[in-house]
Amino acid sequence: MTTLLTLAVLILVAIAIWQMTKMFEFSQLATSNNNAQVANDTDNKYNGYLMFGFLIFIYGITIFSFWKYSKVLLPESASEHGAEYDYLMFVSFVIIFIVQTLTQALLHYFSFKYRGEEGKKALFFADNDKLEAIWTIIPVIVLAGLILWGLYTWTNIMDINDEDDPMVIELYAQQFNWTARYAGEDNVLGGANVRMIDIDRANVLGLDESDVNGADDVIVKELHLPVGRKVNFEMRSQDVLHSAYMPHFRAQMNCVPGMITKFSFTPTKTTAEMRQNPDVVDKVKRTNAIRAKKAADGVENMDPWEFDYILLCNKICGTSHYNMQMKIIVETQEEYDAWMKSQQKFSQTVAAVQ
């Protein structure tokens, strides 16, 4: 199918180049020959039918895309705000699809119905207040509704507060990896500044060693989250603009050098639960079938894949941007507590290298 689509694209590109060449040739013709290039009724009718053909192609490729590629979409969200986010996105796409279907049908139908014909003179309206009011007011109402709904949803999502006893975690971005810092038992992050980075003392995030709030901070390369517990993320960047993107939680926020940005969500499904999701099971099956075929052909690193939540960078931040990711594990509170007990605190890490 990929080969067929590639051939179709190449053919369309070739036709476009051919038409552009003809336009250039027409522009170079002498004035005396221009009359020979004027479209007649047959030409206009032929082009009108081609417009209908292109309309069928548009609808066909749309239906095919829904049928063929819907399975590669993200599964249901794994955060409390995700369902509302997905519903807003669904409504937006339904409206876009309906408007696109109607406008394209009218555009191509009118191109045929009102094609040029011998002896027919076009009737020109300088303005039509009623029609202009309709096509202005309706989009304004629809767009205003979507914008207000979106702002309300965003306000709810960005309700970052301490009332729900959230965990506090810092996501630290640098080319080309992520580091997470947990606020420790006091749930307060210690002060930090990139100017305080000291690799020799294992102070990779530039924590202020004189700040007592940072002594129990925990620095890790794998993010663990307890299910059902709200998490307030604070984000920093060491070098360039990055973007913390956690697609399954419908969460994204830019990481800007020189400032702290924030995002909050509550995970609702453990990694184990999401692995049982039918869409995820199907995706894992399809992916491993592809990997098995490549492994049989001698391609390296084609071990079977298992689903995990993931943190990505969603800004093109350099040559290895594609590889900037961190594994996220959502687990029960008991499992999280056991994992946290096995981690070293910042004060212990610094003491170990002295």
Structure description:
The chain folds into three domains: 44-116; 128-157; 167-352, Immunoglobulin-like (Sandwich). Helices cover 44% and strands 16% of the residues. It contains eight helices and ten strands. It has a five-stranded mixed β-sheet, with no helix packed on it. Strand 1 (167-174) and strand 2 (177-182) form a beta hairpin.
CATH superfamily of the largest domain: Cupredoxins -  blue copper proteins
Largest sheet: 5 strands, mixed
Strand order of the largest sheet: 3-2-1-5-8
Global mean pLDDT? 87
Strands, count: 10
* Head-to-tail CA distance between termini: 61 Å
Please, what is the oligomeric state? single chain
Annotated CATH topology of the largest domain: Immunoglobulin-like
Number of helices: 8
CATH class (first level) name of the largest domain: Mainly Beta
By CATH, the architecture of the largest domain is named: Sandwich
Outline type: elongated
% residues in beta strands: 15-25%
Structural class: alpha+beta
Topology as a string of helices (H) and strands (E) = HHHHEEEEEEEEHHEEHH
User: Which spans of ≥5 residues are poorly predicted at pLDDT below 50?
Assistant: none
Task: Give the topology.
Layout: H1 2-28, H2 41-69, H3 82-113, H4 129-157, E1 167-174, E2 177-182, E3 218-220, E4 223-226, E5 231-237, E6 242-246, E7 251-255, E8 261-265, H5 271-274, H6 278-296, E9 309-313, E10 325-331, H7 333-341, H8 346-352
Parallel strand pairs: 1-5, 4-10
Antiparallel strand pairs: 1-2, 2-3, 5-8, 6-7, 6-9, 9-10
Helix pairs in contact: 2-3, 3-4
